[in-house]
Each structure stands twice: as structure tokens, then as C-alpha cells.
């Protein structure tokens, strides 16, 4: 399986392989070679001699061929073994490797840029109890106005779209671990306290008591969510993104929205970062740092956190101007997507779509400028080598 190339557990294997004489790697990427089995195979050929400075790689893009050897002869390229990073291999041609190395030297890892603050969405352990629809929310608040204190807007992965303001149709009954004890001053009858103070919520959750009690990841009481030390981060302005992406899917939220575990967040009000992540160069870096899944990539923190982010030098007037321009363009993009959502006629939809495409091109160009890409490097990023 090819997951060893970028996964953390593959580090010892990668370090060992760099000391061997690799002749060839044939990577089937996310193609499903074996019927009835989800696998990501690769073929590694090694000889027992001193390592070369480079080896041959073929990335198989289709299974529609008559002979594997012929396909390899027509599509192989050379990879410089000396520049491969033990932390993760990207089996690209030497021009692409050179570009990735320069980008790495120019920026800082995303994990450092956001001070390690990238968090997974909420795991309730029992969505049927804690995730409710709009009508249930309205009914609970109508029965008891205080219910609103414990109900938060909630998103699933399908709700996250590139630059799109999420449309909220689900809500989370949010009672954090330890909340009951803190609010009730350690009442000996915690459930009775909840019934007296939040009767509608208590009555609703009582129907799920048995199943909620059986959760291995419940809070101090069965009606509480599992312990988590970053719930407060969801209340802050933040970038939200899908952990599995087939194309860029990053957006901005400042409505205190929570999300499920298909969504990750970084609590940062950085529109320049959002522009970079949603750009063509951002996707190029993601596709070279994150592990491949069928039709896309897995953006868990261990991988995404490695992509290099260009830091704005706020003592440089030109850099400040670029940053201000990026913020303006990203704000424009967020606004255009919202207007597109609200457009009522095909004519208006087409007009907003054209403006979005034009603004996208401007953001891409500005990101290229931030990273000081040459015309040849831009062609590599855009796949027109």
C-alpha cells in the first residue's frame, strides 16, 4: 500500500529506503486495482547495491491499458532521491520537486503559522439525541426560552463549500462536560436541577437517556458531551474546512458555528490565509503534502500542517499592500458567493458566477506574486508543464 509515502508511521520505512538502491516505484495512487477491496497499491523495485541519486517513478492515472510495462515506458520520469524528505515523500518530477523545495524555504509550516491551533469537529457519540433540526429548535425555545442558551448552529461536512457562507439547517444541543456541576454548584440531584432550569431540553433528552448513558465518550453526566478543551474555539471567527477534499473547500465563519468531525477549524481571522488555501497554488501544495484518497485528498493536521505559508512582512509597505489587496479580494469573494446563493434568476446567477471566476483569477495571481513564482513555475502549478 502506498500510504507509507506520507503517513507518520511510514517515517522509518522512508528513512530506510533512502539508504537503498531504489530502481523504480510504480504508484497506482487512488485507483482501485483489486475488485471488492479498497486498496492503494504501489510496486517498489530495489536492488542490493549502493543508492543512486535518482530513480524512476510512474504514477498510474488509468487502468485502461493493455500492458503495464508499455504504460511505464511511456509515462515514467526521474525523481531525485537526495531531496526526498523523511517527513513525507512527494514523488514528483525534478522540476516540481525544485518548486516544492523553494516554496518550503520561502514559507513556514501551516502548523507554526496558526500556532498549532487546528481542531477537529465535535463528536457527540449520539447524533440522534444531540443534533436537531430547525423545527425542533424552535419548539424547544417556544416551550422554554432558556433552551436557546444550549442550542448552537451546527454543520455537517456536506455544508462546507469554498468561500460559501454555510446555510444552517441543523443545531447542536450543547452541554459540555462539567457544565452541569459548574452551573448547579455541584447539586446532588443534577438531573433534577436540569429539569427545573432547562425543562424543555431535559424532557427532549430524556427520551435518549438509555442510549446516551451507554456512550463510551459521554461527559460527566449522560446528557453532557465528551470532554474537550477547545469547545470555546468554535465561538471565535475561524476558517472551516472539509477534511476530505476533491477540490478546495475552505470557508470563513464568524457566527459561532459548530461542526461535526468531517470538518476541521482553525480559529484565525486571516483572510490572506483563506485566499492562499483556496487558490490554485494552495491546492498544488495540498496535493503534494496530503495523502491521496479516492478522487481527492485527506487534509488531517499531520499532513496539512506541513504546507508552507508565506508570512506577510508588515514592516514592508509592498507586503502590506499585497495583504490588504488579498483581504479585499477574499471579502469580495465571500460576498459574491453569498449573493450567488440568494440570486433568483439565471441571469443574476450567471453574472455573479462570472464575477466569482474573475475574482478567483485575481486571487491566484496575487498568491503567485506573494510566493514569487516565475512563469515556468506557474505552468507547473497549473499543470501545463
Can you describe what's shown?
This protein is 39% helix and 17% strand. It has 16 helices and 17 strands. Strands 2-1-3-4 form a 4-stranded mixed beta sheet, with no helix packed on it. The longest helix has 26 residues, at 317-342. The radius of gyration is 25 Å and the shape is globular.
SSE layout and pairing:
Blueprint: H1 11-17, E1 21-27, E2 42-47, E3 54-59, H2 68-75, E4 77-80, H3 94-106, E5 108-109, H4 110-113, E6 119-120, H5 127-130, E7 131-133, H6 134-143, E8 151-155, E9 170-173, H7 179-183, H8 190-197, H9 199-206, H10 209-213, E10 238-242, E11 244-245, E12 250-253, E13 258-259, E14 263-266, H11 271-277, H12 280-289, E15 291-293, E16 296-298, H13 301-304, E17 308-309, H14 317-342, H15 346-370, H16 375-381
Parallel strand pairs: 1-3, 8-13
Antiparallel strand pairs: 1-2, 3-4, 5-17, 6-14, 7-9, 8-9, 10-12, 10-14, 11-16, 15-16
Helix pairs in contact: 8-9, 11-14, 14-15
General shape: globular
Instruction: Calculate Rg over CA atoms.
Output: 25 Å
Strand count: 17
Strand content: 15-25%
Strand order of the largest sheet: 2-1-3-4
Q: What is the helix fraction of residues, given as a range?
A: 25-40%
List keywords for this structure.
single chain; 385 residues; four-stranded antiparallel β-sheet; 16 helices; 39% helix
Amino acid at each position: 500500500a502506498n500510504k507509507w509515502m506520507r503517513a507518520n508511521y511510514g517515517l522509518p520505512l522512508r528513512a530506510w529506503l533512502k539508504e537503498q538502491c531504489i530502481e523504480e516505484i510504480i504508484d497506482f495512487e487512488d485507483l482501485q486495482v483489486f475488485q471488492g477491496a479498497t486498496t492503494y497499491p504501489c510496486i517498489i523495485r530495489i536492488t542490493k547495491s549502493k543508492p543512486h541519486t535518482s530513480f524512476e517513478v510512474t504514477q498510474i492515472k488509468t487502468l485502461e491499458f493493455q500492458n503495464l510495462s508499455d504504460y511505464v515506458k511511456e509515462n515514467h520520469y526521474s525523481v531525485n532521491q537526495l531531496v526526498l524528505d523523511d517527513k513525507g515523500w512527494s514523488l514528483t518530477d525534478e522540476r516540481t520537486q525544485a518548486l516544492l523545495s523553494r516554496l518550503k524555504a520561502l514559507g513556514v509550516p501551516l502548523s507554526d503559522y496558526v500556532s498549532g491551533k487546528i481542531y477537529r469537529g465535535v463528536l457527540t457519540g449520539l447524533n440522534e439525541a444531540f443534533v436537531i433540526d430547525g423545527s425542533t429548535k424552535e419548539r424547544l425555545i417556544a416551550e422554554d426560552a432558556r433552551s436557546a442558551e444550549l442550542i448552537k448552529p451546527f454543520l455537517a461536512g456536506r455544508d462546507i463549500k469554498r468561500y460559501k457562507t454555510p446555510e444552517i439547517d441543523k443545531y447542536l444541543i450543547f452541554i459540555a462536560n462539567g457544565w452541569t456541576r459548574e452551573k448547579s454548584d455541584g447539586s446532588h440531584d443534577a438531573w433534577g436541577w436540569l429539569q427545573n432550569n432547562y425543562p424543555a431540553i431535559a424532557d427532549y433528552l430524556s427520551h435518549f437517556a438509555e442510549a446516551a448513558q451507554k456512550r463510551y465518550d459521554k461527559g460527566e453526566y449522560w446528557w453532557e458531551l465528551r470532554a474537550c478543551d477547545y469547545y470555546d474555539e468554535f465561538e471565535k471567527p475561524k476558517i472551516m474546512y472539509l477534511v476530505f477534499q476533491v477540490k478546495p473547500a475552505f470557508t470563513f465563519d464568524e457566527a459561532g458555528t459548530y461542526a461535526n468531525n468531517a470538518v476541521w477549524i482553525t480559529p484565525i481571522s486571516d483572510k490572506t490565509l483563506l485566499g492562499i488555501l483556496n487558490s490554485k497554488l494552495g491546492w498544488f501544495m495540498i496535493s503534494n503534502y496530503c495523502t491521496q484518497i479516492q478522487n481527492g485528498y485527506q487534509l488531517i493536521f499531520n499532513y496539512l500542517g506541513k504546507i508552507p505559508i508565506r508570512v506577510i512582512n508588515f514592516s514592508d509597505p509592498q507586503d502590506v499592500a499585497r495583504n490588504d489587496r488579498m483581504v479585499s479580494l477574499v471579502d469580495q469573494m465571500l460576498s459574491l458567493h453569498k449573493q450567488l446563493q440568494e440570486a433568483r434568476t439565471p441571469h443574476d446567477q450567471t453574472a455573479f458566477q462570472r464575477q466569482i471566476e474573475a475574482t478567483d483569477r485575481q486571487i491566484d495571481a496575487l498568491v503567485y506574486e506573494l510566493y514569487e513564482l516565475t512563469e515556468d513555475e506557474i505552468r507547473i502549478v497549473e499543470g501545463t508543464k
